[in-house]
């Protein structure tokens, strides 16, 4: 099968190689990958994965099932993010544990569906498992135009009826954040606490930080309400002054959507359930797709360009590619 492997360490180059089609393990689906999407994690792990296949967002068609799989059969269309400890989906065929996959939203083609899973799992787990948000409360989403922020905004607004404040610094990222459901937008490159004050919302009940945690931490301490909750999704490289939250009895937590699969937690199958709920909301029109850059059929060059764009720090929403010419069934 055609696979895109990282050519060598510290380069943004890919090589198309022929690899054997993998055999499903007990819980696996073997998926004929129709489309894939990119996330910053691809660029972050690339240097350490020379000769390996990246990619943790796919949509495709089941073509074989492991002996303990339930709920899926050959021919089903599925979408999923997968497991960072296993080979990625930038290949013609791919194995995924069926418990972290779901039936593809019927209203989206494979390209648009591939752009959803990783960011949807992150947004959902951060909002509902870590922050445990409540209807009607206020939420600040730092970096609201990125892949995760786009879905955090939508879920908080459309599924949970919250007052949602996004952050963006360019006209296009502000417009995108507005379209995703932000009630207000402030600029993360300027004094955020002062901008919240000016909106008449000096403190927020929740903060969802979708950008490097350390530089925004002091402002988050100022902006969080007493008894508020903060979740962050970018690991810190230096110790965080979490003690600064003590006076407000505010809490801080991490979200890492790969943790369930990486540690085979008892909650593993919740990821399949979350993706099913997200598919239902997409099909009902409550949530909308977040694809902003639709590529053609993936090549080694377009994959390298997509990595460069992701690394530019200017991505808005998601970018996705077809793995093969779309068939009439997609
Ligand atoms: N823990 C997890 O499970 C998990 C899951 C997914 C992603 N992540 C991580 O979360 C981060 C965001 O990923 P993503 O895909 O959602 O978005 P992304 O594509 O990395 O976000 C791009 C956006 O970042 C904004 N940005 C640039 N400088 C900023 C700053 N100083 N403060 C706030 N925002 C800034 C830009 O907005 P402007 O142009 O408007 O400035 C740009 O549109 C990445 O580091 C990724 O690795 C973690």
Distance between the termini: 20 Å
Stretches with pLDDT under 50, minimum 5 residues:
none
Q: Report the order of strands and helices.
A: EEEHEEEEHHEHEHEHEHEEHHEHE
Secondary structure class reads alpha/beta
Chemical compounds bound to the protein: NADP nicotinamide-adenine-dinucleotide phosphate
**Overall 3D shape:** globular
Quick take:
The protein is an alpha/beta fold and 330 residues long. It folds into 2 domains: 2-116 and 261-322, Quinone Oxidoreductase, Chain A, domain 1; 121-257, Rossmann fold (3-Layer(aba) Sandwich), CATH 3.40.50.720. Helices cover 30% and strands 25% of the residues.
Structure description:
By secondary structure, the chain is of the alpha/beta class. The protein folds into two domains: 2-116 and 261-322, Medium-chain alcohol dehydrogenases, catalytic domain (Quinone Oxidoreductase, Chain A, domain 1); 121-257, NAD(P)-binding Rossmann-like Domain (Rossmann fold), CATH 3.40.50. 30% of the residues lie in helices and 25% in strands. It is built from ten helices and 15 strands. The protein has helices at residues 40-45, 110-114, 117-131, 147-159, 171-179, 192-199, 213-223, 259-262, 270-284, 300-311; strands spanning 2-6, 14-18, 28-37, 58-65, 77-80, 93-97, 101-103, 138-142, 163-167, 184-186, 204-209, 224-232, 251-254, 291-297, 318-322. Strands 3, 4, 5, 6, 7, 14 and 15 form a seven-stranded mixed beta sheet that branches. Strands 10-9-8-11-12-13 form a six-stranded parallel beta sheet, sandwiched between helices. Strands 1-2 form a two-stranded antiparallel sheet. α5 (171-179) links the parallel β9 and β10. The mean pLDDT is 97. Residues 39-41, 44, 118, 122, 142-143, 145-149, 167-170, 173, 188, 210-211, 233-234, 255-257, 313-316 line the site of NADP nicotinamide-adenine-dinucleotide phosphate (NAP).
């Amino acid at each position: 099968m055609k696979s895109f492997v990282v050519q060598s360490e510290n380069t943004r180059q890919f090589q198309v190689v022929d690899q054997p089609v993998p055999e499903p393990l007990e819980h696996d689906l073997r998926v004929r990958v129709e489309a894939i999407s990119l996330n910053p994690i691809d660029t972050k792990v690339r240097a350490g994965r020379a000769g390996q296949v990246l990619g943790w967002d796919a949509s495709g068609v089941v073509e074989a099932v492991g002996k303990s799989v339930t709920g899926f059969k050959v021919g089903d269309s599925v979408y999923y993010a997968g497991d960072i400890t296993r080979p990625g989906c930038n290949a013609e065929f791919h194995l995924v544990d069926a418990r972290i996959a779901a039936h593809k939203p019927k209203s989206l083609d494979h390209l648009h569906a591939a752009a959803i899973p990783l960011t949807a799992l992150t947004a959902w787990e951060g909002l509902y498992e870590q922050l445990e948000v409540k209807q009607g409360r206020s939420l600040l989403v730092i970096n609201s135009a990125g892949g995760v922020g786009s879905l955090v905004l939508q879920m908080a607004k459309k599924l949970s009826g919250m007052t949602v404040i996004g952050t963006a610094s360019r006209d296009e990222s502000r417009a995108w954040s507005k379209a995703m459901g932000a009630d207000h937008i402030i600029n993360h490159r300027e004094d955020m606490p002062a901008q919240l004050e000016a909106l008449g919302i000096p403190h927020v009940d929740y903060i969802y930080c979708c950008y490097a945690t350390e530089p925004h931490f002091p402002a988050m301490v100022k902006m969080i309400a007493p008894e508020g909750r903060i979740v962050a999704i970018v690991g810190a490289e230096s110790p965080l002054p979490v003690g600064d939250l003590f006076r407000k009895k505010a809490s801080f937590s991490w979200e890492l959507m790969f943790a369930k699969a990486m540690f085979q937690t008892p909650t593993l199958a919740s990821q399949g359930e979350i993706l099913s709920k997200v598919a239902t909301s997409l099909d009902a029109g409550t949530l909308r797709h977040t694809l902003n850059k639709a590529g053609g059929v993936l090549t080694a060059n377009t994959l390298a360009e997509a990595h460069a764009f992701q690394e530019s720090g200017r991505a808005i929403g998601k970018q996705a590619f077809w793995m093969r010419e779309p068939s009439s069934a997609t």
